[in-house]
Design brief:
about 290 residues; 10 helices; alpha/beta; about 15% strand; Rossmann fold; three-stranded parallel beta sheet; 2 domains
Length: about 290
């Protein structure tokens, strides 16, 4: 069993990005600039956005954090998005989700310029992804691909089962794993909450990607011997064994499954760190292009 160390690979990628930024600076070219909009005071969102800002600093990017109260109107938020779209100094824009209930997140996503949509959520970029046209890939699925690639995990001809069909992870990774590329060329089964006999399907997976948000949902009796397990889920649960009073669990029962798998991502420290690094990589590409 090999643990897929997202922290280690993420650091490697950020070092590569920092070198690319240094090269841009030496050539007198533009330094990538990422803007993030945070609405409200959701603790998890605040932590995640702060991590993105810190990562920008680490690789030499410029960053701008724009914060609004929870009661900002949808109209005012759309106006700010439009302002950033037109700002030539800013190369990438993310609007941290979730947004308050009175704001339509789809409308906000569609308002972001596809050329600055480094989250890879805009319908135009999702469409390009589906057609295998170079574009910004959603950061978490892109991070999964990069982990698989850097650990030289064979995917061609393998059966990949995806559990969860969100537009952020499940749907895009199912498309990416089936593409004629490396990683890719899998036969993909996309499952979800309405799937009948889920266990029978997951037990056939050579590669199992789980993005449900249900702590330790996948157990050892649901996988086959030697499967590669990618755990995207992260749930905070109470714990009397930690100083904080809580701990983070994935969608996979790690201790139960690890010895039965060939590769497995830990939680935390697996897919999570990769997401931020791929967001940075998208921002770099917004300056250098997709062929760089």
């Amino acid at each position: 069993m090999t643990i897929l160390d997202g922290k280690k690979i993420s650091k490697e990628i950020q070092l590569e990005i920092a070198k690319a930024v240094n090269k841009l600076n030496l050539e007198g070219k533009k330094t990538p600039h990422l803007a993030a909009i945070l609405v409200g005071n959701n603790g998890a969102s605040q932590t995640y956005v702060n991590a993105k800002v810190t990562a920008c600093k680490n690789v030499g990017f410029k960053s701008t954090l724009i914060q609004f109260d929870n009661n900002i109107s949808e109209k005012d938020l759309l106006m700010k998005v439009d302002e950033i779209n037109r700002d030539k100094e800013i190369d990438g824009l993310i609007v941290q989700l979730p947004l308050p209930d009175h704001i339509n997140s789809i409308r906000i996503t569609e308002a972001i310029s596809p050329l600055k949509d480094v989250d890879g959520f805009h319908p135009i970029n999702i469409g390009k992804m589906a057609l295998n046209i170079p574009t910004f890939l959603p950061a978490t699925p892109a991070g999964i691909l990069e982990l698989i690639k850097r650990y030289n995990i064979s995917t061609s001809g393998k059966h990949c089962v995806v559990v969860g069909r969100s537009h952020i992870v499940g749907m895009p990774i199912s498309i990416l794993m089936s593409r004629n590329s490396n990683p890719g060329n899998c036969t993909v089964t996309l499952t979800h909450s309405r799937t009948v006999n889920l266990k029978n399907i997951t037990k056939t997976a050579d590669i199992l990607i789980v993005a449900l948000g249900k702590a330790e949902f996948i157990t050892s009796d649901m996988i086959k011997e030697g499967a590669c397990i990618i755990d995207v889920g992260i749930t905070r649960v109470s714990s009397k064994y930690t100083k904080s009073g809580w701990k983070l669990l994935g969608d996979v029962a790690f201790d139960d499954i690890k010895d039965k798998s060939s590769y497995i991502t830990p939680v935390p420290g697996g897919v999570g760190p990769m997401t931020i690094s791929m967001l940075l990589l998208n921002t770099l590409k917004s300056v250098t292009g997709f062929d760089s």
